[in-house]
TrEMBL record:
Top-level taxonomy: Bacteria, Bacillati, Bacillota, Clostridia, Lachnospirales
Gene3D superfamilies, per database record: 3.40.50.2300, 6.10.250.690, Winged helix-like DNA-binding domain superfamily/Winged helix DNA-binding domain
Domain (Response regulatory): residue spans on this chain: 5-118
Organism whose genome encodes this protein: Enterocloster hominis
Any single Pfam family the record assigns to this protein: Response_reg
SUPFAM superfamilies on file: CheY-like
InterPro entries recorded: CheY-like_superfamily (IPR011006), OmpR/PhoB-type_DNA-bd (IPR001867), Sig_transdc_resp-reg_receiver (IPR001789), WalR-like (IPR039420), WH-like_DNA-bd_sf (IPR036388)
Protein name: Stage 0 sporulation protein A homolog
Amino acid sequence: MNKPLILVVEDDSSVKNLITTTLKAHDYRHLTAPNGKAAILEASSHNPDIVLLDLGLPDIDGVDVIKKIRTWSNMPIIVISARSEDTDKIDALDAGADDYLTKPFSVEELLARLRVTQRRIAMMESESSAGAAVFSNGQLRIDYAAGCAYLNEQELHLTPIEYKLLCILSQNVGKVLTHTYITQKIWGHSWENDIASLRVFMATLRKKIETTPESPQYIQTHIGVGYRMLRVE
């Protein structure tokens, strides 16, 4: 099986060389693009499996590149940027990015993010071929058709919003979901009160699915940004 084809969008030659050298060393196939216009052309021409995207490009802002790609494709996009403010992360994730890695970064973390993304791709393909009727992650199981969730084969007694929240997270395993994205999915809008309510529902959901809520196994908090369901081996 071929390794995924990765498009590296980076105008800084030193960072680009670090990334491409790392990819070569781990047998990943890759393409490169020095700016936003070239990135859009390469993405549409070669349909890469994963995009590694810098935001500070010389011609088009990376967030606009994400929005453009999202008009025709759901290919995973991992942002690699020196912008570290929560607002920058939220803008990129809301535009459709799947993950956000802040410069400077370690090679090990980059490879870990790629592995997470690959697992999510494989899981989505598997669920698609199986009709996505049942979701399994560690000891957690969700029967979408029946509208029930189980932990260690014991049915969880969830409120409708807790169940909906669990489904949204499970359908995006490995992907950081912003507060805005989640609240719009649950309530159809996103106000400050919705985010406060979301935190309450998340706390009650965690009490039901996490053995130790203070050290969560399934749901990871990204402070100021949102939440991510982790893939449990």
